[in-house]
From TrEMBL:
Similarity field: Belongs to the glycosyl hydrolase 43 family.
Keywords (A to Z) from UniProt: Glycosidase, Hydrolase, Membrane, Transmembrane, Transmembrane helix
Domain of life the protein comes from: Bacteria
Cited SUPFAM superfamilies: Arabinanase/levansucrase/invertase (SSF75005)
Signal peptide (residue range): none
InterPro entries in the cross-refs: GH43_arabinanases, Glyco_hydro_43, Glyco_hydro_beta-prop_sf
Transmembrane segments: 12-34
Pathway(s) of this molecule: Glycan metabolism; L-arabinan degradation
The protein's name: Family 43 glycosylhydrolase
Alphabetical list of Pfam families matching this protein: Glyco_hydro_43
């Protein structure tokens, strides 16, 4: 990021005063070379004009999949967390990477949330974390799973700081204890003095779907057997937020992780009650497969947008949301990791229904969030 900033300034200052055409060509080649090097950096915030009032997606690359974001109320800094991934930079697999930003668009890598994998499961990756401030501490709910896992589960780690270290609290539940296949993708929400966790992922087997469950007052335990079905098993990566008297459900469908061939997209439904029923714009209950209203899908250049973060409202009242998406021309890293970049777009309202980024990932310059 620092290198790209220097190259950008050099271009502005020196190119206009060069007279010789050969020197001009040499400068332009040098700028192109250094910019290319910076793009290959393992931790690059691509919104590099820090201090300006515009930005351009992606806001971080090469990878921050399944993003979850929080603002520290003390420092006012923002922190982003993502699925465990190997960025193909020789540093190995980062156990839930943490990013830091002061303006929501310029991000720097802090380090991993975990120093070692939790011990309550024998094998798997730490996926789809969800960060929350609960009782003055940072609660990181996370998934522990392998591809095709018959008994994945959800755990909790806690820290006094958004930077960690996060201390594992163990398993909340798994698929066997909940009788819910593919028990991953947790999402925490507090409502009317109670804590809830939503979870669930793709499945077409009996018991499939997204479910909700009330948590204990301290958010560390679940009430086994009290789950409520929210959506069918063609959804995953649930986000719930409240606006104008409605609870809005955002969920992702399609393939998340096939590089340039990814078909991820985001749909919405809403309810007057946190626990549903949630219906789409046509009044169809999303507990039935195939229902939901599209709010974002891929474009010609950027594919597989999905797994939204919670909604953040800036100082001017504009709603913003993060998600990951893939550059069709750079679908995977050299090691095969899907290049799921961190994206940020406004949540725009058309009547009582939201659209993300105009319905497609935006890559043009746009105004930055207004931060106090």
């Amino acid at each position: 990021m620092f290198l790209r900033s220097i190259v950008y300034i050099k271009t502005l200052i020196y190119v206009p005063v060069v007279r010789n055409s050969f020197l001009i060509a040499l400068v332009l080649i040098s700028v192109s070379f250094f910019d290319s090097c910076a793009k290959r950096n393992s931790a690059v915030s691509t919104s590099f004009v820090e201090g300006g009032n515009t930005f351009q997606n992606p806001v971080f690359e090469p990878v921050l999949a399944d993003p979850t974001i929080i603002q520290d109320p003390k420092t006012k800094l923002f922190y982003a967390y993502g699925t465990q991934d190997n960025w193909d930079d020789g540093q190995g697999s980062r156990l839930v990477p943490i990013l830091e930003s002061k303006d929501m668009v310029n991000w720097s890598y802090v380090g991993p949330a975990f120093q070692e994998k939790p011990s309550w499961k024998g094998a798997g990756g730490i996926w789809a974390p969800d960060i929350n401030l609960v009782n003055g501490k940072y609660y990181l709910y996370y998934s522990y799973s392998t591809w095709g896992d018959k008994n994945p589960g959800v755990g909790l780690a806690i820290s006094d700081s958004p930077k960690g270290p996060f201390i594992d609290q163990g398993k909340l539940f798994d698929s066997e204890s909940m009788s819910v296949p593919n028990s991953i993708d947790p999402f925490f929400i507090a409502d009317n003095g109670k804590n809830y966790i939503f979870w669930g992922s793709f499945s077409d087997t009996p018991g499939q779907g997204t479910f909700a469950l009330e948590l204990s007052e301290d958010g560390k335990k679940v009430n086994i057997g009290q789950k409520v079905k929210i959506a069918a098993g063609d959804y995953e990566a649930v986000t719930i937020f409240k606006k104008n008297g409605y609870y809005y459900f955002l969920g992702s469908k399609g393939s998340c992780c096939e590089g340039a061939n990814s078909k991820y997209h985001v749909l919405v439904a809403r309810s007057k009650n946190l626990l549903g029923p949630y219906v789409d714009k046509e009044g169809r209950d999303i507990k039935e497969r195939g229902n939901g209203t599209i709010v974002m899908q891929g474009s010609e250049d950027i594919v597989g947008p999905g797994h939204t973060s919670g909604v953040i409202t800036d100082a001017k009242g504009q709603d913003w949301i993060y998600y990951h998406a893939i550059d069709k021309n750079q679908g995977k890293l050299g090691n095969g990791t899907s290049r799921r970049m961190l994206m940020l777009d406004p949540l725009v309202w058309e009547g009582e229904w939201p659209i993300i980024g105009g319905g497609n990932p935006q890559t043009k310059q746009q105004k930055k969030p207004v931060i106090n």
